[in-house]
Design goal:
With 194 residues, the chain is of the alpha+beta class. The chain has four helices and twelve strands, in the order H-E-H-E-E-E-E-E-E-E-E-E-H-E-E-H. The chain has one domain: Jelly Rolls (Sandwich), CATH 2.60.120. The chain is elongated and about 75 Å long. The protein starts with a helix and ends with a helix.
């Protein structure tokens, strides 16, 4: 069976295993908020995590906005710096700011995929303290997550754990080689037509 040069080039390209799409995993990281190891946001940033919110971040007794709670419509975003995350889990003490037990810890969690697009928002069960975040979003790699509290409800985040996953970029020599092969293939096709 005779193969065209273009078929051989395409087959060769895919047989390379697309090295620029490979993922490199790192060890699991756990941050305990309100613990002396996580008193400064710069220390949290050094662990590959950026935290922002609808107000001032408070790390004094857990993680909250303007106090020790994420409550009354406040939101907090965890962004994984220069990488993606798998195995994301959070632990939070579930509290209420007004004593109403029917609204304890309610809120929504929104996940963002590798390109920063929303994977949707999921209502969090009021009594759930441990959340398997990746599991909620089909075990996809996440670039960030945002928790938004319902009114009169609050969560005090005490821990987050995650595994950073970086996407390896291609070696310049691989890209150059693919370009040379592609140009040779185009040249060969032009010669064949003449």
């Amino acid at each position: 069976m005779k193969h065209s040069l273009l078929t051989l080039i395409v087959t060769g390209f895919f047989s390379l295993g697309l090295p620029f799409l490979s993922l490199k995993s790192a060890k699991a990281i756990t941050i305990n908020f309100g613990h002396p190891d996580a008193d400064e946001l710069s220390e949290v940033n050094a662990l590959g995590l950026d935290i922002s919110g609808s107000g001032n971040i408070d790390l004094s007794t857990g993680l909250g906005i303007d106090d020790f709670l994420v409550d009354n419509g406040e939101s907090i975003t965890f962004t994984f710096i220069n990488s993606l995350a798998s195995s994301v889990g959070t632990f939070s003490a579930v509290l209420t700011s007004d004593g109403n037990s029917s609204t304890i810890g309610t809120g929504t969690l929104e996940g963002f995929d590798v390109d920063g697009f929303s994977l949707g928002s999921i209502a969090i069960d009021p009594l759930t303290a441990i959340i398997d975040v990746n599991g909620l979003f089909g075990n996809q790699l996440l670039s960030s997550i945002t928790f938004t509290s319902d009114l009169n409800a609050g969560r005090n985040f005490t821990q987050i754990s995650y595994e950073l996953v970086s996407v390896e970029t291609p070696e310049p020599s691989i890209l150059l080689g693919l370009g040379v092969i592609g140009l040779a293939g185009i040249r060969g096709l032009k010669r064949k037509k003449n």
